[in-house]
Amino acid sequence: MPHIHLEYSANIENLDTKPILLALNQALVDGAYVSSANDVKSRAICQQEYVIGLNDPTQAYIHAKVSLLTGRSLDVQQQISKLLLKTLEQQLQKYAQFNLQICVEILEMQKNTYSKKVVTLNEQIGSVFI
Predict the structure, then answer these.
(1) Does ATP-binding appear among the keywords (predicted)?
(2) Is the pLDDT of residue 97 over 90?
């Protein structure tokens, strides 16, 4: 935990999302917001169908949805939001040809309904068909 879903408008052509995702993960690790780097899972999704305002092609967006387990204070959630917004700003400076809307949204996942299991390679080997 946490999960980061990074959505962005398709008019940001050739957006290399891997370094952006890595920078977001690193920011959480460096800020000591996670106990292990492997707890952070991030992914990027390009939105082909979108409209910003009245469809002005100079408008673009990137929106990070950050899902955290319940229990973090509002102050910590705000710190994470600001940290990731700053990280995104730094990573996206070269896309100044757009009016780029950068957003971070913090979402809470209920601890009592979230399930997770880490399956090691040794556990899987018996059920893998080759």
Answers:
(1) no
(2) no
Q: Is the pTM of this model over 0.90?
A: no
**Residue 43 located in a structural domain:** yes
Q: Which residue has the tokens 């995702």?
A: 21
Return the pLDDT at 89. 95
Structural domain total, the chain: 1
Q: Is residue 67 part of a domain?
A: yes
Residue 127 pLDDT:
55
Do the Cβ atoms of 90 and 26 come closer than 8 Å? no
Q: Which domain, by its residues, includes 34?
A: 3-125
Full strand arrangement of the beta sheet holding 41-47: 41-47, 3-9, 59-69, 99-109
